[in-house]
Amino acid sequence: MFSKEEREAIYKVIETRRDIRSFKSDPIPIDAIGRILEAAHHAPSVGFMQPWNFVLIESDEVKKQLAWAADKERRALTIHYEEDERASKFLSLKIEGLKEAPLTICVTCDPTRGGSHVLGRNSIPETDMMSTACAIQNMWLASCVEGLAMGWVSFYKKSDVRDILVIPPHIDPVALISIGYTDVYPKAPILESANWEKRRSLQNLIFKDKWGNK
Amino acid sequence: MFSKEEREAIYKVIETRRDIRSFKSDPIPIDAIGRILEAAHHAPSVGFMQPWNFVLIESDEVKKQLAWAADKERRALTIHYEEDERASKFLSLKIEGLKEAPLTICVTCDPTRGGSHVLGRNSIPETDMMSTACAIQNMWLASCVEGLAMGWVSFYKKSDVRDILVIPPHIDPVALISIGYTDVYPKAPILESANWEKRRSLQNLIFKDKWGNK
């Protein structure tokens, strides 16, 4: 079903995709946005519940409010690093580009969608959120092949984002996604280059038949 | 960075990928398994925490135990559908192929990896599980381009799977993945063809600037 070239394209995008925090203001072609959202909507979901919604934010005023919520959370978190040698490193990291990116997408998860007994979610409730994460990963790969940069911001209190976007209390705003063009698309994860965290050896993460059995 | 052909390949795999429950016993080439796990390990993760592990299960004895845990859960869930017209439909659905598939992978999430204050996870703790879901989606796309079928089983009690695979109490066995060749790779999701759930209109899931604003 897939040619060698197609297979190589998949592995190429999986390996080159990066989490980006710096964006140019150039607008995004509307058909690219359409393809990225279609990719999200074709993600797998537990019991086919499709628990996602997408709030597309282009208003500068709303973006400014979201950036305020993220910055408030960043400053609050700094306090948790204050007795840590990482504090100054943390403060120097650029953790979001919400005001720069031409498009922000708030991806939400509706745990009530599909009724009270969604197949599979009945046993493991957090599979609704995991389905939404699969949709986000599809968006990331789609953005990457469109030549667009994407960043997933998780620095905020959900209640702030609910207030700003008027999201009902039972809906979970699981991610703020920034999308735009960028000048810098690094080869390695930003947190790896910044010496914040190392890539682990895959071999050490694999076990055979039982946990701990190499 | 990506050609038109490469872009089309990505959308093709995103759209054709299906959740499969029927497998042939033919063995999987070891290098394909390697590429699928590499794809998982190249998923994004919050604070670059890489919270995943992969328990590869080829032992028939262990597979039999996992299938027992899944079947026990299936029968328990049937009771929740008993006053529902869906009960007989539920019972007729094939929900797992754990004993058929030549390879089962238990994907786990370690919420303690990366220490107490993982960047981003500090604000939204469930981003560890969402990162693991991104890894699973990469595995799915990789399996699909390898001509392999994959199924994500979430019918089990985590405590049963922990007992069977000797997984420590703080590690979360978030998914049982079946991988193998199949004779039937449907065009539409199985739950859609079985009239269990419909594909929603993407247009209805998109809002502009605020929740509810079309």
TrEMBL record, chains A, B:
The keyword Flavoprotein applies. Its EC number is 1.13.11.79. GO terms for molecular function: 5,6-dimethylbenzimidazole synthase activity. Keywords: Flavoprotein, FMN, Oxidoreductase. It is an enzyme of class 1 (oxidoreductase). Gene3D superfamilies: NADH Oxidase. PANTHER family: IODOTYROSINE DEIODINASE 1, NADPH NITROREDUCTASE. This is 5,6-dimethylbenzimidazole synthase. The lineage of its organism: Bacteria, Bacillati, Bacillota, Bacilli, Bacillales.
